[in-house]
Amino acid sequence: MICCCATLRAASQQLITMDGYPPQDTARVRWMLTKTRTKHQRPQMPHPPYHYTIEDCTFTGKKTGLTYGATLTRPIGIKRFPTVVLISGTGSQDRDYTVSGHKFFWVLADYLSNHGIAVLRVDDRSTGKTTGIFNRSTTVDFAKDVLCAVEWLNTRKDIDPGRIGLIGHSEGGIVAPMVAAMAPEKISFLVMIGAPVIGLHQINYYQTRQAYTAIYKPDTVLFAMMRLHQEIMSKIPAQAHDLSEMNVVVKNALDTFYKRESPGIVKRIIPDKNTYDRMFRSYQSFLSPWWQFVLSYDPAQDIQKVNCPVLVVYGNKDRQVPPAEDYALIKKLQHRRSESILIPDMNHFMQPDTSGNPKNYEAIETTIKPVLLEKISTWVLGQAQLGR
């Protein structure tokens, strides 16, 4: 998940409320927009008795020196089975990928292990039993974490090293091909769900426009605000590496904005000095190592290096990444052993949903759309039978 400064601004104007995550880096706030906390049914939540083994474990990454907390679920009564490592989206997530009262990866692991697939789900950096400093890390660091998990699986006698794959959601969906590009001999297949393959710079534009549409009316005001935002973002990270450089970038963009736009539009967007000052503060979070990396990273460069089979899935109601644009690009990048599907009435978080509005994630009782669970399971088992 990626959350833009527009969401923060909307929250400051009390247009929305949100659960901040992580609190140290507000530009990467989880895009969970809620007004009340009510208890909802979770019919897919796993309950004992479990028909697979569950092993809580810790391991040390040789390349990172970090300790990782994880849970491995393995099928019972099967000697040779595929294994997948789950990769969460943006934010420091626990191993269950707990978002809006749902445990997305616990539900996914339960289904897959019940159908003959071992699953390793791992706490992200600085979460649960995993060490490290999340806010100093980039997507490359997260890829190294996943590679450490794969290498640990390779040391186990109960895991077939030739049948290990990755399943990544959202940002995890672009981490997966990055790992496969790093160590192609260790990855047998990939599943990418809701992956922002067009790049997070474009995703920022997409999400910002959605948030601004609710704030700035008519369209002339919206277009002026988007021009201002893009002028600033186009200079990051090339010209903004520290606070002083960022302030210069924002000031130059604002100077151009004041000269270009009519007094009425200027007054609507920046009505007072407090708003002007807030504009500077809202862009400071883009100085974080993560933002500095993702704003210049093109996922296509790693996707093009992937030679193993890939399953790519989008929901047509995804409002956090543009499914049409991402789907079209991934179709161009894929090789003959890959498959792309667009699932009707599914949101970014894999739930059945006709609107895709992120504020509905918690209220939707189903954690993962059953057709997606079945597709992933069938596809992974098929790859395991074919071999690497």
From TrEMBL:
Cross-referenced SUPFAM superfamilies: alpha/beta-Hydrolases
Gene Ontology molecular function terms on file: carboxylic ester hydrolase activity; serine-type endopeptidase activity
Keywords, alphabetical: Hydrolase
Native source organism of the sequence: Pedobacter hartonius
Gene3D superfamilies registered for this protein in UniProt: alpha/beta hydrolase
PANTHER family membership: ESTERASE ESTD
Claim: Mitochondrion is one of the keywords in the record: no
Keyword Calcium: no
Designated name of the protein: Xaa-Pro dipeptidyl-peptidase-like domain-containing protein
Domain Xaa-Pro dipeptidyl-peptidase-like: 70-348
GO biological process, one term: proteolysis
